[in-house]
Design a protein that fits this description.
With 345 residues, the chain is of the alpha/beta class. The protein has helices at residues 12-22, 42-45, 62-68, 81-90, 107-113, 135-139, 149-163, 193-196, 210-222, 255-266, 315-329; strands at 2-7, 27-33, 71-74, 94-97, 127-128, 143-145, 173-178, 201-202, 229-234, 241-248, 272-277, 292-299, 304-311. Helix 7 (149-163) packs parallel to helix 9. The structure holds NADP nicotinamide-adenine-dinucleotide phosphate.
């Protein structure tokens, strides 16, 4: 059995990790930390977990975590993981970090959009945890930087078409929408009910921190600099993420080639559901699951492909992909603990 620990277990991604790992056949959850709920049971904060998770939350202590866990998930706001991860690695623990602290290879890029990095030496070693695209690297890693939710939702439909040269990478537009849990559980005016209900709005237009993350990965895959236009939107639902992407199709590329590229790339991948030409994903159909549903349509007059991708921002966009990465890092079945049947409504 793999012994797993969660640092920051009471946040939205933390509790999703607790939910998934509690049902994982090969894992025992040995330690869960918090700062404000030390000594309390998870069910006191999330009553849905009553009679499911009993052990109390504890304060973070690297020695105790190191002694009792083989794998640790850090589900904390960025800036905190880079302070504690080096100590955990030194204690022989494998780490999957859900923040942005280990997603960038270039510390300068990280520092431009976040803050000075206190463990830049680990960025070269850290593996970007897009499980379907970098499975071998993830399998041999001791430190994985789990991708952001928007990058996961947008990169999965884009990468096969960039890699096969079927689209022109100079005209990519990403128009994405996220449910409110994307902002986390920390109270803020922006996420109060009266601020989000009946509201649908773009935010951080042209300045969102996931833009450089996506450009870094696309440039790596394309082998040349790729710049994108990304506009995130907040929608009044608790969880769910939809990305609609527009890209110029190369002159000699047809929809048959697009369908083949997706099939060759993801045909064997358990969590990518290809809906093909005319397929319209819906966040309702991926809710609570680790699935990414992908469909596409051609705009013939503009010779532009319209890609559509739906995930659950807390599962495939965070906790589910993190567990998928743990499965790969620990030589387990990639689907272990993640094969719950989706809600039908
Ligand atoms: N929400 C999403 O859809 C999503 C998707 C992908 C990635 N992420 C990333 O995942 C990370 C966690 O996000 P989240 O949405 O779960 O955030 P959240 O709901 O705000 O939870 C943050 C967690 O961190 C702990 N925490 C906060 N400040 C702390 C401090 N100073 N010291 C120690 N612990 C502290 C909190 O627990 P206590 O208050 O009990 O300490 C809480 O458990 C973030 O880096 C986020 O960018 C989030």
């Amino acid at each position: 059995m793999i012994r797993a620990g969660i640092v920051g277990a009471t946040g939205y991604t933390g509790v999703e990790l607790v939910r998934i790992l509690s049902g994982h056949p090969d894992v025992t959850l040995t330690v869960m930390t918090s700062t404000q709920y030390v000594g309390k049971e998870m069910a006191e904060i999330y009553p849905a977990l009553r009679q499911v998770v009993q052990q109390p939350l504890e304060a973070f202590d690297p020695d105790r975590v190191g002694d009792r866990a083989d794998v640790v998930f850090t589900a904390l706001p960025h800036k905190l993981p880079m302070e504690i991860v080096p100590g955990l690695l030194d204690r022989g623990v494998k780490v999957i970090d859900l923040s942005a602290d280990f997603r960038f290879k270039d510390p300068v890029l990280y520092e431009r959009f976040y803050q000075p990095h206190t463990a830049p030496g680990l960025l070269e070693e850290a593996v970007y945890g897009l499980a379907e695209v970098f499975p071998e690297q993830v399998a041999s890693a001791r430190l994985v930087g789990n991708p952001g939710c928007y990058p996961t939702c947008a990169l999965l439909p884009l990468i096969p078409l960039i890699q096969t040269g079927l689209i022109d990478s100079r005209g990519i537009i990403i128009d994405a929408k996220s449910g409110v849990s994307g902002a986390g559980r920390a109270p803020s005016l922006k996420t109060l009910f009266c601020e989000v209900a009946e509201s649908f709005k773009p935010y951080n237009v042209g300045v969102h921190r996931h833009t450089p993350e996506m450009e870094a990965v696309l440039s790596r895959v394309a082998g040349r600099p790729v710049h994108i236009t990304f506009v995130p939107h907040l929608v009044p639902m608790s969880r769910g993420m939809m990305a609609t992407l527009y890209a110029p199709l190369k002159k000699d590329a047809g929809l048959g080639a697009v369908a083949r590229a997706f099939q060759e790339f993801y045909g064997e991948k358990p969590f990518i559901r290809l809906m093909g030409q005319g397929g319209i994903p819906d966040t309702l159909n991926v809710r609570g699951t680790n699935f990414c549903d992908i469909g596409f349509v051609l705009d013939p007059d503009a010779n532009r492909i319209i890609l559509m991708s739906a995930i659950d921002n807390l599962v495939k966009g965070a906790a589910g992909q993190a567990v998928q990465n743990m499965n790969l890092m620990c030589g387990l079945d990639e689907k272990a603990g993640l094969s719950g049947v989706p809600y039908s409504l």
